[in-house]
From TrEMBL:
It comes from Ancylobacter mangrovi. The lineage of its organism: Bacteria, Pseudomonadati, Pseudomonadota, Alphaproteobacteria, Hyphomicrobiales. Residues 188-294 form the Acyl-CoA thioesterase 2 C-terminal domain. It comes from the Bacteria. The keyword Hydrolase applies. It holds the Pfam family 4HBT_3. Its EC number is 3.1.2.20. This is Acyl-CoA thioesterase 2.
Length: 306
């Protein structure tokens, strides 16, 4: 897959808002001690910094754990405990749980204001041969070149989108997103989103795993609400990621198009479960994701109803 800048995707531009260069900077943690790292939050050029984005904490915690081993991560399981404060750095403390011949295990705790805001276990595995199979890609999904970017959508489509949804999809970000059928009614809790890093990334596979972890939290919880004609992005739902699991099956590049095939097998008790399969454009299943989130309906007060 290509690694050099192309005509439609120039080299890194550190001055552009929410650029991939700034994301790479976010993932370059400062090492304070053997097992202690400090991660910064996005610069002021990034809008909507009311709280720390969960995908950022996922990615930074994975980077911290990766820097204590010499093998590749294959799975991570995390819990979001408290909302992150974007005004101060995040400390990541890594516990070296186990180092075996084939597998290694790490536990990462993200800390702010002296309290854990996030915990994650990561498993690492030395590559070895074995059995091969996968669930095939749904070939009815159009390729990314046939899915319009948000700035290419027809005016009538944009007019159907609630203001918070339109605001979310049009904001600058380091990950390029192309949702399939945005704004269309759904008959089942399923959706597809093409995504890739906005600019070419370094060749380090650990960086591509971290960027995938970052992107895996961007759109997944929305799968729990699409069947109900509402969104986690508006004011009708109080939403928050509760936990997040990511398994990485095969090598991939996060700066080439990846298809995020998402569904929600259940929603009940103000919680929704979302799943995702991540395919490369050649149809190889490269990762699987699962997340449970709070999707609590907001009941208007009498003043609001008036």
């Amino acid at each position: 897959m290509p690694t050099e800048p192309t005509a439609d995707r120039p080299a890194l531009d550190p001055s552009s808002p929410a650029s991939i260069a700034e994301l790479i900077g976010l993932l370059d943690l400062e090492r304070l001690e053997d097992n202690l790292f400090r991660g910064e939050n996005p610069p002021e050029s990034w809008p909507f910094r009311t709280r720390v984005f969960g995908g950022q904490v996922l990615a930074q915690a994975l980077v911290a754990a990766q820097r204590t081993v010499d093998v590749a991560a294959h799975s991570m399981h995390a819990y979001f405990l408290l909302a992150g404060d974007p005004s101060i750095p995040i400390l990541y403390e890594v516990e070296r749980v186990r180092d075996g011949r084939s597998f290694a295990t790490r536990r990462t705790v993200a800390i702010q204001h002296g309290r854990p805001i996030f915990i994650m276990s990561v498993s690492f595995h030395r590559e070895e041969p074995g059995l091969e199979h996968q669930l095939d890609l749904d070939r009815s999904v159009p390729p990314p070149e046939e899915v319009p970017g948000i700035n290419e959508l027809a005016p009538e489509v944009l007019a159907r989108l609630p203001a918070p949804v339109l605001d979310y999809w049009t904001r600058p970000r380091p990950i390029e997103l192309r949702p399939v059928g945005l704004g269309e009614p759904r008959s089942e809790p399923r959706r597809f989103v093409w995504f890739r890093a906005g600019r070419p990334l370094p060749d380090d596979p650990a960086m591509h795993r971290a960027v995938l972890a970052y992107a895996s939290d961007m759109t997944l919880l929305e799968a729990t609400t699409v069947l109900h004609g509402t969104s986690v992005l508006g004011t009708r739902i109080q939403a928050a990621s509760l936990d997040h699991a990511l398994w990485m099956h095969r090598p991939f590049r996060a700066d080439d198009w990846l298809l995020y095939a998402q569904d929600s097998p259940s929603a009940s008790g103000a919680r929704g479960l979302a799943r995702g399969l991540v395919y490369d454009r050649g149809g190889r299943l490269v990762a699987s994701v699962a997340q449970e989130g709070l999707i609590r309906p907001v009941i208007p007060s009498s003043d609001d109803r008036a």
